[in-house]
Amino acid sequence: MKRVMFVGRTGCGKTTLYQAIHNKDIKYKKTQAMNFFSDTIDTPGEYVENVRYYRALNNTSSDCDVIALVHDCTSKVSIFPPGFSSMFSKPVIGIITKIDLCNDEQALKAAENFLVSAGARYIFKVSSMKSEGINALKKWLDIN
């Protein structure tokens, strides 16, 4: 089982993704501080939205096996600068969330390009609300 750290802007679906992966009831809960679980670290969006918190992300990454850059496909801009993943010494994947809300193939392609530019090596497209793509992500992370 790989321990994953979710990183992404506020409201992109990190906590909802955690709930979907672990078959929990989906409830909105603003993450105020880093939440540490046995196989997941859920980070507040502010940690990637404010450069001063990058060091905290980098330090916390030592407690996981893989970094997941999470991007909401309905967002037209990326929070991740090109090469963002280079600050981590762990593999980095990209997760495009809320695909059930995106009927535009170009928006999905743009989201994928944002994550690849940031340094994600594998891209997963998921809908936590409809469980689309969740099993493929769980299989890759080896989460039962």
Automatic annotation (TrEMBL):
GO BP of this protein: biogenic amine metabolic process
Signal peptide: none
Source organism, top-level taxon: Bacteria
InterPro entries xref list: EutP_PduV, P-loop_NTPase
Keyword check for Transmembrane: no
Pfam family of the protein (one): PduV-EutP
Protein family membership: Belongs to the EutP/PduV family.
Name assigned to this protein: Propanediol utilization protein PduV
Organism: Clostridium ragsdalei P11
The organism's taxonomic lineage, starting at the top: Bacteria, Bacillati, Bacillota, Clostridia, Eubacteriales
Gene behind the chain: pduV_2
